[in-house]
Every structure is written in structure tokens, then in C-alpha cells.
Amino acid sequence: MTTATIISYAEIQPVITVRQPDPEMRVKGAPNRTTLSYFADPAFGLSSGIWSAETGAYKISMAASKHEFFHILTGKVEISCDSTGAVKSYGPGDTGIIPPGFSGMFEIIEDASKFYVVTDRNI
What we know:
Distance between the termini: 24 Å
Oligomer: single chain
């Protein structure tokens, strides 16, 4: 039997990756995106961490099995939806969810960071 324990980000050494959007996804610039992956549990399809990026824009497409919950820490972003044309702006303190099957554009208006939690039923 295992004992469940509380996890504190302060006690974790995150896995850090720095990437730019793939060239075919870029809309404006080639923003560096830094991801600090603090937690992943493939058995439950869960991952979380802190993401930051420079200004720019790129296309996003969420798999039918994925959700992303996010909370903006710094900066400003806009997310536009391909199917409806709707644009939502997020700044420090704003929280949102990108639903399964979503496609659109993610634009970093001001260098930004967010806390994220992603669930994926197909992991």
C-alpha cells in the first residue's frame, strides 16, 4: 500500500524546456517559450507547470482528448477561435480553459507567464 502525499512545487526541481513554435504554426515572430514542468502523472493523463513566452503569435490546436486550465501570472495574451472568430484577452489574475478540439491562435501581446494544468485522456 502506498501513502498519498501532498506535493509542493517549492520542493520540486522542474524539467525545463525552451522551444519556439514549429515554423508551420507561426503567425507572428518566433517567440521563445519556456516550460517548467513540475508535475506529470501519465497514469492519470495529468501535467502541470509554469510556462512563459516572448511576444509573438502562433496557431494552436487542442487534441480531442485534452483540456488545458491556465492562470495568467504576468503579461497579456489573446486567444482567438477559428470556428467563431471570438477573441478573448487575458492578463495577470485571469483564468481560462482551452477545451478539447479547440483550434485558433495564441498571441502573446506582452511577454507573459502562466500556471497550467493539462489533462489528456489518451496518455
